[in-house]
Prior knowledge:
alpha/beta, six-stranded antiparallel β-barrel
Amino acid sequence: MRNRILILTPLFLAFACGSLFADTLTLQFTGVDNAAGNYYISPYTVTVQGTGQVLTVYCIDFNHEVWVGDEWTVNQTVLDAADVGNLQYGSAGYTEDQLVTDYSMAAWLITQLTNASTVYEQAVYQYAAWEIFLEPSNQGAYNASVNAVGVPSFSSDIATAFEDAQTAVADGYTPTGWDILTPTIPGLPNSAQEFLVDPPSVPEPSSIVLLATVCLLYTSVHGSDAVVTVTPSLVGELSTRYADQPAAKFICVPNGYDPAAFADFHARPSGSAKVIVSYVGTVYSTTSPSCYFEALDSLPESLRSRVETRFVGRIASDQKELVESRPDVKSFGVTPQAVALRHMEETDYLLLIMTDPSHVPGKLYEYLATGKPVLAFAPKTSEVARTLAETGGGWCLEFDDQAGIRQCMEALASGELATRFHPNQEAIRYYERQRLAAEFAAVLRPVQT
């Protein structure tokens, strides 16, 4: 007999508890319009099974397939920076910042496609969007299709559109007005394609859909030999909710980091006389650094002037003024991963902000892999606080603990805080993906009979 394993993400649990954050739809691919090269290009039409509603969708995924007549199931969610880890390429080895940049570029390109006046212009934006997540194994088919268009300037026009998307995102473009249709089992070679859709076209989930989802979760939990999720707090929540099930049934296999990405990482001094605090990743409203700046501004000028804050990554438009108006801040914008790692090599502290107590951003594991101390603003009872305490990876400051924040910031600015940093390297290495994969493999082994 084999194990029946149920893997639950925070996104699915939120929906199963009655959130309208995600809608599960069964779609049938019903229509195509224009072709360019060897493939049909957006827009396409799909029909929602059960309602008959016809939706117009736009493909951003060259690596997977959906054919006319195919049916598949998707999660429909708002395209939002906070949730890129749950999308098709969320587990493909991209950094969080790169995922936000890439999905934002895709949304910008598809927006241009919807406003294009000719099929050729549509093809340019479609192929530029496809190029964003293009995998090496599909490069040959992509190149052959580009050549099949038969227009000598097509390749250079794609490159220009791609660069325009990069510039738009670097200048602060944030996707609005788009939902994303992600296959319910994303990221596998045989997963369906991923599409953007205009959200007003998609019906909100009805109470019967929510009830069906809760019933599905109940049935799945009771019918599984093991239920795997990514944080201890979610394990505790599930154990409480399903108290009639054995506690050992609920297992935590957390996310982690790829040590190969840090094989050439070498900590080095910045060359600055100041203490360098760096935030690497996207800044948006739920990760606003306002709490950090308030703490910094509470210090006497003699200490405050010793700190320089750096931001490496995209800054959402509603946070730009807060960050870029400060004279003690340097903003480097969106950079390749190799450049971001160089910034991390020379920083003294890595800044993290997380308001959700049950969530651990992938950024934290990457921070821990650097061996640099983490300065986190998060609830004291949060998974971030637990992870930092367990690894000795840094300090977690409660948002409303003004005295504790000030004391920590004074120690940081004076240089005294660095002397207290004693990370537990073995605890950090637990989060290497190879180890976690072995742990998950143990869950998957057949039950001995």
